[in-house]
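To whoever is on call:

I kicked off a structure prediction for a single chain this morning and the downstream step that reads the tokens threw a length-mismatch warning. I double-checked the sequence; it's 66 residues and nothing unusual in it as far as I can see. Pasting both halves so you can look.
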Amino acid sequence: MMQKPDIAIPPKDLNMLQTVLDAWCSQHRILRKDATAEAKILINEYKRGNRSQIALIDALINSTTH
């Protein structure tokens, strides 16, 4: 199985990902520098084709509920 090459994230999408991450961090009272797992989840979801803030937030919620 071939691995997908890393895709370049356009600035507007990068801003959107940062906005989602910032909102998540402030809501959960964590520092952005401590949110590396969440950032990886967002990037992975983005690479899968998720471009919706709501879908990205859902991915974070689903990944952190135990």
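Update from on-call: the warning came from a stale cache, not from the record. Cleared it. Sanity check on the structure: Residues 11-64 form one domain.
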